[in-house]
Every structure is written in structure tokens, then in C-alpha cells.
Automatic annotation (TrEMBL):
Residues 16-81 form the DUF305 domain. Residues 1-35 are annotated as: Disordered. Residues 1-18 have a biased composition (Basic and acidic residues). This is DUF305 domain-containing protein.
Amino acid sequence: MQHAKDAIHGANPAHDKTSMVMPSTGDPDTDFLRGMIPHHEGAVEMARAEIANGTDPKIREMAEEVIRTQQAEITTMRAWLAERRAARKGS
């Protein structure tokens, strides 16, 4: 079983600043979303660790909200990126 501290503070590539450095596409909107998706995925992982290990009902509720909102935003960002790619292919 993973220790709660490890689950929240362990090796998480989404929150490793060096992993968030990626070559620019030349499109600031695309670059922003490409960086935000792993950031949001990391927040979801941390919230899941809280739900699995936390004991404070208010904080667990907050973690559930983080999961709901961040996953919805990830879906929106991925859809926008897919639309952008499709539009560029059609140009």
C-alpha cells in the first residue's frame, strides 16, 4: 500500500516542472492547453489520493469537486485541441 504522503508528494510527472517544459508549437493557445492538461491531471491524481487517504469530510468533498471540475476542463481542452488539429489539416 502506498503511504498517503507518497501518494500526494511522490513522483508525479504532471507536477514536475521540468516535464512541463515542452517545445513551443508557435501557437500560444495550443501551448497553454498542452501545458494545462498534465497540470490538471496531476490535480486529479492528488484529489484521488486525498479521497483514498484523507479523513476530513470537508477536504474529501473538496477533492471530489476538484476531480469533477478538472476532468471536465481536461475534456474541454482535449476537444479544443482536436478541433484545432482538424481545422489545420483542412486548411
